[in-house]
Amino acid sequence: MKKAGILNRQLSGALAELGHGDGVLVCDAGMPIPDGPRVVDLAFRAGVPSFAEVLDGLLAELVVEGATAATEVRDANPAAAKLLAGHFDGGALEFVSHERLKELSAGARLVVRTGEARPYANVLLRCGVFF
User: Fold this and answer.
1) Which of 77, 55, 40, 75 lies closest to 124, judged by CA?
2) Catalytic residues, which ones?
3) Among 113, 122, 128, 130, which residue's beta carbon has the most beta carbons within 10 A?
4) What is the pTM assigned to this prediction?
5) In tens digits, what is the pLDDT along the chain, a chain of 131 residues?
């Protein structure tokens, strides 16, 4: 049994299968999930687990070379925008329209659905390599 890190067996296994350039969509409970990507649904109740908790846990285990979020997050959910800005400095964070983010999410290899109930708490991570 693991003693640290992500304990959810489906999520831990899915993360181990990711490679350079693969996309991981971390999304709120309301984001439409496209057909195709593997989905690990962590949502339990509204707000549980939060977008911040899940994002922090994923970033502790993944090498991420870039991220894409919806421009709308800046006005509709300043807390999520601040969280994203704190994790991705410089040019590592790109903003696109929410509609474009939904289109891009179809190419993700993995979708991790949170219980987040605030709007636009979604980010598409692009995996990097550790060397």
Assistant:
1) 55
2) 20
3) 122
4) 0.96
5) 889 999 999 999 999 999 999 999 999 999 999 999 999 999 999 999 999 999 999 999 999 999 999 999 999 999 999 999 999 987 899 999 999 999 999 999 999 999 999 999 999 999 999 99
